[in-house]
Amino acid sequence: MIFYFSGTGNSHWVAKQIGLAFNDQIISIADELNTTNGLLRYTLKENERVFFVFPVHSWGPAVLVKRFISRLSFDNYAGQAIYAICTCGDNCGYTDRMLKKTLSKRGLLLTKTYSIQMPNNYILMKGFGVDDKDTETSKLTAAPKLLDEIITDIRTDQHKTFYITGSKPFLKSYIIHPLFCSFVVGKNKFYATDACTSCGLCAKLCPTKTIVMQNGHPTWKDTCIQCTACIHHCPVRAIEYGDITQNQGRYVHKEISGKSTTGN
Length: 264
Hints:
Layout: E1 2-4, H1 10-22, E2 26-28, H2 29-35, E3 40-43, E4 50-55, H3 63-70, E5 72-75, E6 82-88, H4 95-104, E7 112-117, H5 133-156, H6 169-183, E8 190-192, H7 201-205, E9 211-214, E10 217-220, H8 229-233, E11 239-241
Helix pairs in contact: 2-3
């Protein structure tokens, strides 16, 4: 059973590869949260593996992943292996420890966390931005080989380390990440320029239904989690975030571009 969340397609791509490797279905965390109220209940088979695939947001688990797990319950859970594979631009801090604690509150034991470097896509703050094309290509070229090694590690239980903590993980995960969640998530400066063609793709992709089309143009409510799906997927680059993104690049995974990152 593979649960995933993705904004620009990196984690969606990883989830699809894991699904193919283990002949298992992938389940959108965003879709489950949007269609089910209350407890999210799933039945596990004996020896069935569970995967969580998601992006690291400000050196911690993406907000929707934590929300999902807080409502999660498994029938027939008897210590089946639970793996996390997180995508990151550079490093993950203590995302693994944070996820382990979140799962333990639901009586679930995290077996192991892996990380895969993928192209950077957070562009909503000064000092951040997408990778240059050479770095983007290098990461996308290396990712399939690393993922194959991770899959082999899971199958053979070799306990190799495929996780990048990075420097100053305590500062990043236990100070910066909570500040991000408290002062950034829920607030936004998104707007659509005159270039908007009213295609509605941004509203369709938004995992929290934050975007509503009014008079043919998108408007944003204060439920944004800054996944950046809308701004990166816009086919005519009509979405901006204040004046920060006007000279920033855009990125979506080449195999996911133009497709829903929350569904199929």
